[in-house]
Amino acid sequence: MTWSAYVLAALSCVTAVTVTAAAQLPRPQASSSATVSSFYDLKTQTLLGKPADLGTYRGKVTLVVNVASYCGYTPQYQGLEKLHRELSPKGFAVLGFPSNDFGEQEPGSPQEIADFCRRTYDVTFPMFAKVSTMAGASQSPIYKFLGKSGNLPSWNFAKYVIGKDGKVVAFFPSDVTPEAPELRAAIAKALAAN
Fold first, then answer.
1. Which CATH code is given to the segment(s) 28-192?
2. Burial, 66: exposed, middle or buried (Cβ in 10 Å; 0-12, 13-18, 19+)?
3. How far is 163 from 40, CA to CA, in rounded Å?
4. How do strand 61-67 and strand 92-98 relate by DSSP bridges?
5. Residues contacting residue 98 through CB under 8 Å, at least 6 positions apart
6. What Cα–Cα distance (Å) separates residue 2 from each residue in 6, 12, 13, 88, 193?
7. What percentage of the chain's residues is helix, strand, coil (to nearest 5)?
8. Where are the domains of the chain?
9. Whole-prediction pTM value?
10. What span, in angstroms and rounded, lies between the C-alpha atoms of 67 and 98?
11. Cβ atoms 110, 128 nearer than 8 A
12. Per-residue pLDDT tens for 43-70?
């Protein structure tokens, strides 16, 4: 066997092994936004790293918020918690998704975020793993799905009202507080829908 034939044979073996290995890599979960028709089809992790299936909220109305600990809007945690406690008996939940996308205002570890939220605002609503909200390769599947509504956050504390069927029914920018009549009206309308 000539040297060039040996090199070609070796390369074809490496290529075959690479292709076979690539075929055996774990496939992404079916929860990528391209195949998802409902927010409640998505899976993620809790803030402290446990698997979380958003399907547990199917049939409820949820308010999805990209939160941050060091933002001028951070005091909205208080209103979000009040809203969560007030409306959860009616089939409603606030879902917090920490994000460090805007002004690097959520630099903390999951435990630091959890401690801050509990100590400062007595947050009891579910908090999930830190996400990237911005369009691009690192964008979270959560925000890829939410972005299909035509809206992505331009800052921390943007709010999506998600209906019982998992569809986005309303979007509110950061400056709309949890107490705002228009936000409360959108939630009430979603709760009244079948």
1. 3.40.30.10
2. buried
3. 10
4. parallel
5. 47, 66, 67, 68, 69, 106, 113, 127, 128, 129, 130, 131
6. 6, 15, 17, 75, 75
7. 40, 20, 45
8. 28-192
9. 0.82
10. 5
11. no
12. 999 999 999 999 999 999 999 999 999 9
Do 130 and 98 contact (CB within 8 A), yes or no? Answer: yes
Task: Quick: pLDDT tens for 61-115.
Answer: 999 999 999 999 999 999 999 999 999 999 999 999 999 999 999 999 999 999 9
- 13 tagged catalytic: no
Rounded to an integer, what distance in angstroms lies between the CA atom of residue 20 and that of residue 13?
Answer: 10
Q: Determine which one of 54, 64, 67, 71 is catalytic.
A: 71
What is the DSSP annotation of 114-182? HHHHHHHH---S-BB--B--SSSTT--HHHHHHHTTT---SSTT-EEEE-TTS-EEEEE-TTS-TT-HH
Separation of CA 138 from chain center? 12
